Every structure is written in C-alpha cells, then in structure tokens.
Amino acid sequence: MNNTSLFKGNDGTNYLFPFILVTSLFALWGFANDITNPMVAAFKNILLISNFESSLVQFAFYGGYCFMAIPAAIFIQKFNYKKGILVGLGLYATGCLLFIPAGNAMAFWAFLIAYFVMTCGLAFLETTSNPFILSLGSEETATRRLNFAQAFNPIGSLTGMLIAKEFILAKLNTATEAERMVLRDTNPGELVAIQQSDLDIVGGPYLMLGLVVVFFFVVFAVSKLPQVSVSNTVAVAKSTTGAIFKRLLDNKTYIRSVIAQVFYVGVQIMVWTFIIQYAENELGMSKAGAQGYNMWAMGIFVTSRFICTFLLKYFKPSTLLTTLAIGGGIFTLGTIFIHGMMGLYCLVAISACMSLMFPTIYGIALEGMGDDSKLASAGLILAIGGGCLMPPLQGLLIDKAHWFGPALDSTRVSFVLPLICFIVITAFGWWVGAKNR
Fold it and tell me: Are 122 and 32 in contact (CB under 8 A)?
C-alpha cells in the first residue's frame, strides 16, 4: 500500500492538507518536551536545589497531562477537534509567557506553575490530535498513519534540544554548584545577580516559543478542518459519557494499553532527563557537552521511528513492540553495569528501542473503537503522568548515594527504574501478540 493511500478515506476523500496541519502540532509539543528535560539539571545548579527538587519540573510538566486529559476529552466529545486544538494552543502560549514573570520573581514555584499551565494545553493538543490523525483515512492504515505523524514529533524535540544546548545551557554562568554555595555564604548579592541572569536566559526561548504558538493559534483559527468521525468505516451510535467509560473499563486491551503507556512515558522521560546527570556524574562532562549526547539520542530516535514505521508494513505492531522492549532492557542493563563511555553509549542507544512505542501502544489501544476513541484517548494522555511520577523517584535515588554504599554508583543504580518499565512493556507486547494469534 503506497503512502498516498494513508490520507484517503473509504469514500475517496483526501485528507492530506489537514494531516499536514495537525502533524505540525506533533513537532510543536515535541519542542516543549525536550527543551524542558535539560532544565531539570539547569534549575538544580541555578537555584541550588536537590535532584529530587529539580525533578519537580517534570512533576509539574507531566502533571498538567494528568490534570487536563479527561476534561480535554470531554470537551472534544461535546464540541469538536478544532475547538480542542484552539484551547490547547491558548493554554500552551499562556504557560510559555508566564516564564517572564516567573523569572522576574526568581521563584521556582512560579516556574512550576508555568510548566503546569503549558502542559494543560499540551494535554488538549495530544488528546485531540492523536485520534484526529487516526480518523484522517481508512481504519486499516490508522496505526501506520499515527506512526508517520509521530515521526515528526522528534524533529521538534531535536530543535528543542538544540535550543536548550546552544541558547540556554551554553550561556548560563559557568560557576559550579560548589562555587555558588560559597557565594551564598560570602556574597549573597553576587549570587542573586548570577541567578537572575541565568533565569533570564532560561526564560528567553520560552518567550519566543509562546509567540510561535500564538502564530499557530491564528493559523488554526482561520483554517477549515474536516468534521470527521474517528471511524470512517463503522457507524457508531451516540453514547453517554458514562456508558463510554464503562465500555473502556471493561476493555482489557485498552486498560493494559494505558498501563503500558504509563511505563513507556516514564522510561522515555527518565532516559532523556538523566542523560545529563549520567554524563556529569560518571564522566565529568559539562551540561552543554552532555546535552550533545541527548541530541544524538534523539537523532537515533528519529531515524529509528522512520525505519520502524516502514517495518510495520511487514511485521505486526505487537511483534516489533516486544522486540524493541527487550532491546531497551538489554541496553539499560549496559547502562547500569558498564562503566565509562560504553555505559553512556548504551544509554544513548536505548532511544532506538523507544521510537516505536508510544504511537504503537496508542494504536493498539484505540483499534476499532470508533467515536469512543475521543474519550479513550484521554486515558492514554493521562498515562503521560508516568513522566510526572517516575523522574522524581529516579532523582531521589541519585540523591541517596549513601543507600547503596561505596561499591555502587547511585546514578547508574537509578536506571533500575527504566529497566522495570521495559519489563512491563515487554509483557504487554507479548500479551497482545498472543491474544491476536
């Protein structure tokens, strides 16, 4: 089946233009995700806080998904996809612009609020865009279409990583954490000046991002999007919200998909957040230098996403998912047990195995759901809360070096959490494959 057919419905309608328009949003939230991951390390140094405290950036960022996923799904169920996108873009822009008063206040809690508002918007965008993409063509090609759209998400992610590396991390004051602690005791005024300058540097790219999001808001406001059903092939009766939730709770495949998605998002955010700490603590790299390896990881992720999308023409999604989850577990073991650069290379290589997972689990969960997928997508976006809870837990493990004794490095030991995630995803992929045999 050629790629053109991915964008045609069973009635011959061509959905290429709305597909391109909505796919642009995948890059837009990818940018937000991956300009934010390095900020965990940046805030730790700027504000002299612990790994656990700095990981609250991820708690606030992904907490927005948890809080807003179900309200967003109910909203689009009541209204339509376009209005959901516009609300999402409005909240996204607002969160970005809140970085300016947060920086002026020099208050970590204010940055956390900005991240939370931003991702309330992203929850709207993802809850809307994923099922919308599934609907823009025949149901037979829905999973391939979503994988293709998701392939553009890492392009935004790479751009966000580059901006973080070159325009934030590389421009921050070079004073180390130890030097800043000395200043805190001997010259607090100088420390405050350094912190204010650093926070201004952090806020600048978010201000520009907010203006870009405002532009997209205008583009979508004036564009005409098709009023499509999530299923072009099945006539689905209108149902009450309560009835839909009951069907979802009774659907074993859907419930297990949500659980698998929780662990996938958790492992993705942990791996990409703590590459910097791994490179710093194990190899003595600078934050900007360590972020370069994060960019290599994302480049591998992008390449693997396109390769795996092609392979889906020949292999079942569950087969590829299981194989890649096993591979991810093996590389994680290398990250834990291999010292030096080889351990870092294993950590970077994990990204090749993660590339297929989010859209494939998403497609498995929503297959054949028809209009129920509007609310079903909420559970899958709610699952992004895995990125809310797990990074602070890993940060806590890194902080508690004394728990493991001198023979074990806490940074490497902390990657036992990603290993557990890959075990869960492997079990899910195997179960789906066995069920479909």
Answer: yes
Would you place residue 5 in the very low, low, confident or very high pLDDT band (cuts 50, 70, 90)? low
* CA 22 from centre of chain: 17
| C-alpha span between 265 and 358 (Å, rounded) | 8
Sign of the Cα torsion 273, 296, 284, 279 reads: positive
CA distance 200 to 192: 12
> What's the rounded Cα separation, in Å, for the pair 231 and 235?
7
Between CA 133 and CA 154 the distance in angstroms is: 17
pLDDT in tens, 171-214: 999 888 889 999 999 999 999 999 999 999 999 999 999 999 99
Token readout for 324 is 């890649």
Please determine, for residue 121, whether its predicted confidence score (pLDDT) is greater than 80: yes
Rounded-to-integer distance, Cα 232 and Cα 224, Å: 19
List pLDDT tens digits, range 283-312.
989 888 888 898 899 889 888 988 888 888
Contact 325, 422 (CB under 8 A): yes
Region class of 370: left (phi > 0), else alpha (psi between -120 and 50), else beta: left
Say how many CA atoms lie within 13 Å of 30 toward its Cβ.
Answer: 22
Distance in angstroms (rounded) separating the CA atoms of residues 107 and 343: 36
Q: Are 278 and 347 in contact (CB under 8 A)?
A: yes
In sequence order, what are the beta bridge partners of 14? Answer: 8
**pLDDT band of 224, cuts 50, 70, 90:** confident
Separation in Å, CA 363 to CA 87, 154, 313, 359, 366: 24, 18, 15, 6, 5
Residues contacting residue 372 through CB under 8 Å, at least 6 positions apart: 230, 236, 239, 244, 247, 248
Give the pLDDT score at 273: 87
Fold for the domain defined by 3-436: Growth Hormone; Chain: A; (1.20.1250)
**Tokens, residue 318:** 């569950």
pLDDT value at 95 more than 90: yes
Instruction: Please tell me the distance from the alpha carbon of residue 196 to that of residue 432, in angstroms, as a whole number.
Output: 51
Residues facing residue 8 across a β-bridge? 14
The H or E element containing residue 232 is none
**Tokens read off for 370:** 């028809």
Residue 220 pLDDT: 93
Q: What is the pTM of this model?
A: 0.78
d(CA 1, CA 175): 57
